[in-house]
Amino acid sequence: MKINHWPQPLKQALPVLQQIEAAGFEAYFVGGCVRDTLLEQPIHDVDLATSAYPEEIKQIFQHTIDTGIEHGTVTVVWQQQNYEITTFRTESGYQDFRRPDQVTFVRSLQDDLKRRDFTINALAVRSTGEIIDLFSGIQDLQHHEIQAVGQANERFHEDALRMMRAVRFQSQLDFTIAPATLAGIQTNAALLKKIAVERIHTEFIKLMQGRARRRALQSMWQSQLYRFCPQLQLYDFRKLIEQTTDQPLVQEASIWSLLGYLWQLDRLEMKQLLKAWKTSNEVLKVAQTATQLLLHDPLNDWNLYQARASAVAVATEVLQVVGQNKVATALQQRWTHLPLHQPADLQINGQIIMQACQQPAGPQIGSLLTLVQQKIIQRQLANDQQAIVHFLKIYLSRN
Questions:
Q1: Is 45 annotated as a binding residue?
Q2: In this protein, which residues make up the domain named Poly A polymerase head (predicted)?
Q3: Residue 32 in marked binding region
Q4: Which residues touch 251 (CB under 8 Å, ≥6 apart)?
Q5: Does the annotation place 150 within a ligand binding site?
Q6: Is 36 known to sit in a ligand binding site?
Q7: Confidence (pLDDT) at 100
Q8: How confident is the model at residue 383 (pLDDT cuts 50, 70, 90)?
Q9: CATH no. for 1-138
Q10: Among the CATH numbers 3.30.160, 1.10.246, 2.60.120, 2.60.40, which is that of 343-398?
Q11: Which pTM value belongs to this model?
Q12: Residue 260, annotated ligand binder?
């Protein structure tokens, strides 16, 4: 099989391959960029592999960066683009189930490809467009199947994160996980505890943003992989499969808010869950607010106003994912029609209050601003400077 029409990212990198070949070495596009080319999907990263050793690559190109030279990776800067070029290698001794204890540079493409995770990622392409497929990766692409290269147990012992990558690819590509590979995940699921939470977090977010999210979550359930992700075993995981649609999730905060909504989590429980996943404070705050917004019954306009636009957008996305499109539309319309959306919309500020109402600086100014916002949201006061000053003078004369 041959690639006759190069996608633009590979076309731009083609001279790099050709220059390595001109120096007498083998060079190939490998991995995800080959897979995505064959699937006619957007290419995110261009990975190159070569029989040339790192020092030999540095002699071929004028501008290089030692990105991960101990693992055989050198970054070549070519026409203002950075390309990571990795020497063919073998790996051995995975005592921590994450990283090889020893990396050996080799001249054999086959030795390099057989250490890769899945057959659909073990494809290589020459500069001529000829595809090297040593493990039936093209057949698995055609059958929409994710299959480990060689023995699944060996691949997952080399890097336990590959189990999360399997379900992530399933979600993104809408593929089936081959029975032997899924069985390997079930057998080795507990090894996921050896992996840094940050790495699991990255894969889980990509899975949840994929087009076949529920299919991948079903595989996590079937293999029990979810039990070894932070705190997921504490809640009813089946709800993520049974009470949602495959409506896309875009924002990370929406993912966590979906979990919080389905599992009825309060602010403290949300904080504990997201801290366990080492989520950023910004995402945590929005997810907490959106979840509480969804769980407010009944929801008043003041709660809606306090949530702010970011949390309302997240709550709307969650409602769409659980199939409550009419409720989502109503929430968005209700937000749109609020007389205020943020304090900056006020036609008054603390300085004006101090001058017009002869008030000293202090915490009472903040309290007055909050009171004004409440009255405007309740539609008991117009957002007009003169009207607000008049209201405050009467209020202060009575209190």
A1: yes
A2: 27-146
A3: yes
A4: 313, 314, 317
A5: no
A6: no
A7: 57
A8: very high
A9: 3.30.460.10
A10: 1.10.246
A11: 0.91
A12: no
